[in-house]
What does this fold into?
Amino acid sequence: MLEQIQEDVAALCKRILALIAVVYRPITLKELTSLDDELEDQTDNPEYLSEVISHCGSLLTLQEDTIYFVHQSAKDFLLEKAHEQVFASDIAKVHHTIAKQSLKTITAILCRDIYGLKTPGIAIEDIQQPDPDPLASLRYSCIYWIDHICNWHSESSTRLDDLKDSAIVSRFLKERYLYWLEALSLCKSMPNGVLQMAKLEAVFQTDTDDLATIVRDMRRFIMYHGSAIGKWPLQTYASALIFSPEHSLTKDLFKIEEPHITVEPTIGPSWSACLQTLEGHSREVTAVTFAPDGKRLASASWDDTVRLWDAESGAALSTLEGHSGGVTAIAFAPDSSHPITDKGVLSLSFPPLHATANSTEEQINLFVSDQWILYQSQKLLWLPTEYRATCCAVKGQTVVLGHSSGRISFFYFDIRYLDSVISSL
It folds into this structure.
């Protein structure tokens, strides 16, 4: 197949083929130009890129400016049989190229209120995509740059020194992090952003420099405020900054973006134990439970609904309505495929998942009793009035509380902290 490519465009074709083989979804011509420094000059020349891709006709096809493999077998061929011809060094190097070029491009282009919305409270569903769209070439990079860093890191024996020495990750986070959150909201990818920051924190967790500390704080920021930012993009610069702790590194880095609003009582100095709050129920939450696989959470309420959530990102998966009254008890089938309530088995089901580490993890002895979260019967965390629970669920190191307001709160406890509490007794 590769022998059919004309010699004058062979090098560029192979470069494009390598990129298309490792991206996580089909990309547009504009997005392609943000992933490789040799292509960035072609942003305004889609005709040339279309012509180059036409030379890869036996492998790639172009449909409405989006690049696809003609068939899964074409991708398999590149990865298994033509690996040495297409990947000049190894796949890890391609992930590195995409991550580095993505960061370079979005650092240069992202800015506050990139769509010129101006209205701080405008809702995501009321936003019309402008033409031309300033995010058109950046969407893939915004959503997946961390995935490519993680893949490069896992597949390469090289540490992240190249990215860190050039300060590209540090510079992006310190100068563009809030703009990236706004862009994620506009791309309707905030839940994915929450997961991405967890991955980035894992990559840097063994580092002792200030970048690891910043990433940790920024993950708390997106977990706590991601729900609001996902609904109202420009609240990134209002509510999210105002209601962050006084000593939050993210708040301090973007002090210039914060509106001149005084809050009383003042926000505490540090992040609380509450990781994030889910909103959706209109009345008291009566029951919460984890699926056995730990990947989903179900909540029941006096508002006659059951809501299903992604337990990692906090994303709302579904709302089940039509119950004849308040739902007061809920559980999952053993294979995690469907929820069961005191009103019966719910019709919505998910495909069973293979067992993971979450499904067999050792149960941590965390409990909720009235005003306290306890660990091995020792009082660990006192709950202020607004965090008192009407119901609770525990999975591993995570405690979920349902509240009379209809909110759901997540608390995560580091096992090292828990062990230090017990050892100090």
